[in-house]
Amino acid sequence: MAVYALTGFSLVSLLSFGYLSWDWMKPSLVADVATDPMEKSLPPTFTRPPHIIFILTDDQGYHDIGYHGSDIQTPTLDRLAAEGVKLENYYIQPICTPSRSQLITGRYQIHTGLQHSIIRPRQPNCLPLDQVTLPQKLQEAGYSTHMVGKWHLGFYKKECLPTRRGFDTFLGSLTGNVDYYTYDNCDGPDVCGYDLHEGEDVAWDQSGKYSTFLYAQRVSKILASHSPKEPIFIYVAFQAVHTPLQSPKEYIYRYRSMGNVARRKYAAMVTCMDEAVKNITWALKKYGYYDNSVIVFSTDNGGQTFSGGSNWPLRGRKGTYWEGGVRGIGFVHSPLIKRKRRTSWALVHITDWYPTLVSLARGNLSNVQGLDGYDVWPAISEGKESPRTEILHNIDPLYNHAKYGSLEDGFGIWNTAVQASIRVGEWKLLTGDPGYSDWIPPQTLTNFPGSWWNLERLTDGLRKSVWLFNITADPYERYDLSEQRPDVVRTLLARLVHYNRTAIPVRYPAENPRAHPDFNGGAWGPWASEDDGEEWEGGGESLKSRNKKKKKKCKICKLRSFFRKLNTRLMSNRI
What we know:
- InterPro entries: Alkaline_phosphatase_core_sf (IPR017850), ARSB (IPR047115), Sulfatase_CS (IPR024607), Sulfatase_N (IPR000917).
- Residues 50-361 form the Sulfatase N-terminal domain.
- The protein has 2 domains: 51-388, Alkaline Phosphatase, subunit A (3-Layer(aba) Sandwich), CATH 3.40.720; 408-502, Arylsulfatase, C-terminal domain (2-Layer Sandwich), CATH 3.30.1120.10.
- It contains 14 helices and 20 strands.
- It has helices at residues 11-17, 37-40, 75-83, 96-105, 134-140, 211-225, 249-254, 261-286, 323-326, 353-360, 377-381, 486-501, 544-547, 555-574, and strands spanning 4-6, 51-57, 85-87, 90-91, 144-150, 169-173, 184-186, 192-194, 197-198, 201-202, 232-237, 293-299, 330-333, 342-344, 348-349, 390-396, 419-424, 427-431, 456-458, 466-470.
- Helix 6 (211-225) packs parallel to helix 8 (261-286).
């Protein structure tokens, strides 16, 4: 039996503080704001396709919202969630690209070839071009479609760009993380470039503006220039609260009493993002969209605990298949919801937004085959049972195989060394190496993560490759039942085998030297053309002859490199 050590905290004391309570919806955590009397007279049925605003935050931890008992102030999100439907059985993916790909396609990543890691800046890879995306389906239904924020679904060809994948307009970054002010992104030593784009052009003129503010302002501008009589879809993929930890000073000052510096900066970023959502909501009301709108809020993966995030009381962190990596913050706010102001425990996954939103838009799903998502609007709006009964968290054949896994441990039908995870009903199975498995209380101590006494650590049972949890009864994954219930283990392994038979080959090509920003005027952007074909996806071997040519580094690239290093020093001193 596993032995747990918690030094400095006792489980009893944590319970007494309410950390392990699921009753996070306390009156004191939600502002008492008078309801607009006009909202009460709205009919609960749709008279025309609704305006859809999908807000996705980056690396926001499960604990890092007011109504989950956080020490971070999120009054706007708390109010929107309280007046709508909170999704407390909502799942996402453990890292960026997988969540975004599943949102945009409605398919598990094993069905798009993106089941391993993320799409990196220099990889000749992107969301498969044969996939019909969510915005494309909404365009078919007569929607104006706009994206603001982080793409992270590949850009090596122009055909991969957001404006070629269903969005009428785009303002944002193509890579995974950029500086919040300068929009520079380095993918290794001396491989740095600018990454802010307006449509398919580099938005050099926007440098210096804090991205959270910039993106909220762009949403307001879109709403101001569009007619509320015509349906609109806006996908707001905030860069916040991904590293680097940067925020305007006035937000950091609010959390000056926090001893942990990373947590202080992170908290400031979350509150800043909360205010950006407030401004977006205000714009919806000001320009006449709100009464016929649906606002969906979702995180993209668990919080990174060593960068200020907290998933407490869940186990694990970003990049893992423990609940702390895949259980997300989610809620829907809309005057069109029939049963408002409640918490839903219906099982929902990020792939479900594709069919749900297309159905809301009165779009046509009959010609879309192979979706892994379900229409969950009746479960959200009316409190009906969710059509979803299981979730494939993933099967990653390229991830480092667990040292102690074997086909024998998988009853001869599954190699338990392979990283995989699935939930069926109330049961959750993990195989291989699920990732960092500790429980980390909110980082309040000055020297965290150096303060080992603030960490509850698993000290036994490390030589394993199979875990089984009754996730309904044990949402914190403290009691492994794999040895007590081998029958359930075998059943869930069989489901993994079933899904694995439907998987397509992994798309994870080698990095290509041609992607270097120096070859693109100092900015990240497409480098391959239609004529290059599939040779670009093989890792760049066909470029050897081209790379023999003398590479001249442009003057602007040298200047940008100098100012980038100078800015980094200034930023480190400023925050």
